[in-house]
């Protein structure tokens, strides 16, 4: 097998591999669009009110305030 024949085969193999990858990407994009359509159609993208407790944000706010106070104290001690 000569060098030009090997280069020709490698070019064909490269193009074939790229076609396989791009076709898989197209299939993946189509599948994701179908899933997004189904999620919107069945209403699975909406959160229900009973799943999220109302007290959770208040606890997070108190913890955030404590973290901010600790950082402020550490910065104040450095100066």
TrEMBL record:
Pfam families given in the database record: OAD_gamma
Annotated InterPro entries: Na_pump_deCOase
Provenance organism: Candidatus Avitreponema avistercoris
Chief localization: membrane
Keyword set, alphabetical order: Cell membrane, Membrane, Transmembrane, Transmembrane helix
MF-aspect GO terms: sodium ion transmembrane transporter activity
GO biological process: sodium ion export across plasma membrane
Cellular localization per UniProt: Cell membrane
Transmembrane segment boundaries: 12-39
Protein name (Swiss-Prot/TrEMBL): OadG family protein
GO cellular component terms listed in the entry, alphabetical order: plasma membrane
